[in-house]
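During the second year of the project, the team shifted from modelling isolated chains to modelling whole assemblies. The rationale, set out in the original proposal, was that interfaces cannot be judged from single-chain predictions alone. As a representative example for this report, we include one of the complexes processed in the last quarter. Its constituent sequences, exactly as entered into the pipeline, are reproduced here:
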Amino acid sequence: MSGTREIKNRINSVRDTQKITNAMYLISSTKLRKARKQLEDTEPYFFAMQSTIQRLLRHLPDLDSIYLDEGEDVPEDKKVTAVLVITADKGLAGAYNHNVIRGLDELMKTKRHAKLFVVGEVGRHYFDVHKIPIEETFKYTAQNPSLHRARMITEKLLELYQSREIHELYIQYTSMKNSMESESVGAKLLPLKTGIESVHIPSEVPQEEFIMSPSPEDVVNNVLPNYITGYIYSALVESFCSEQNSRMLAMQSANKSANDILHDLSIQYNRVRQSIITQEITEVSSGAKAIRREN
Amino acid sequence: MAELFYIRIIASDKVFYEGKVQAFVGTTMDGEFEFLAHHEEEIVALNVGTFRYKDAEGNWIKAVSGLGVAQYANNRCTILVDTCEKPEDIDRKRAQAALERAREQIRQNRSQAEYYVAQASLARALTRLKETFASSGKGPRL
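Output from the structure prediction step:
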């Protein structure tokens, strides 16, 4: 008898879990739709900005800007690298958070001194547990990325960069390869010269001369912070989008395996119930037979 | 009729305008500038303020923008700004609230970085408000 009750309990608990995973699936798919819209909206800006920066760097006369120079005055082993890590606020998103941290490990191999700026609760928790120091005052959520938040983050990082507390700035985020796949990306934001690979132009192509107004310094100082903000904003949006995507996929497969378990359990339940009934019938009929024989 | 050139105005959250125009007037740190067709190759840093363009039919269209950059090359112009709105789309209450918030932050004046952020948002809020009031004909309450 206890066999059926145990199976019944198991079925009920799987059903309850499935209700939760199903709800999470629905939530993340609506959020994903919103995030994807946002991503599509910001993509033209992002690409245009990147081509503008490349063009700007190609045509830029030699000028001293801390955004461009490689910091040769600081020896390689004294350089402090800041990494902006974008993780999710919650787990249950498949391998999403894990991949970000693995990508970060890859990036950190070559860096001597690093400061971590973590967006998202899961990442903060991970570094806490593993006793890896992070910037404690840097608290931003990964939910619903906004331009305002990107601006705040940029301002904070640029302030450190301008005061030479950090000499390099990297960003570790997740980019959507297509609607099914995403990959963790580590990119260099500052200083810029080596951050963007230059396009090789054959020498016979006539090069336009650009005038920079009001002055090249003004253009660089105006555009670069804006470029960093734009980059961080789209990294936030893209990571949020990937997070929802991988959560949706994880919940979808959780739903599927819940269905499989329910299917197996119900077969098992029916078998046990059937065998109990069969056993009862055998007992009754053999009992009846025994009584008939006695008479 | 004036010659046309191709322009793309892109904000970080949308493509604001894409098409042929007769002229584009933007704001830099030291005043306004204008692009006409066949302008020479130039990159201009845009300040927080307003810009306007004259479309193919000759109507001036005005917009409020944040920081950005304009580049003119091969008779095509690309404008990249972080934010960009038409005056009639601006939510006046939100802009007023943003103005007050920015003033509050400037008063607290905590760190230099925060001061710059607050100053920038003050500039954005002020331009927004100025334009909404200018388009409705009433004077601003600043």
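Chain B has a mean pLDDT of 82. The two ends of chain B are 41 Å apart (CA to CA).
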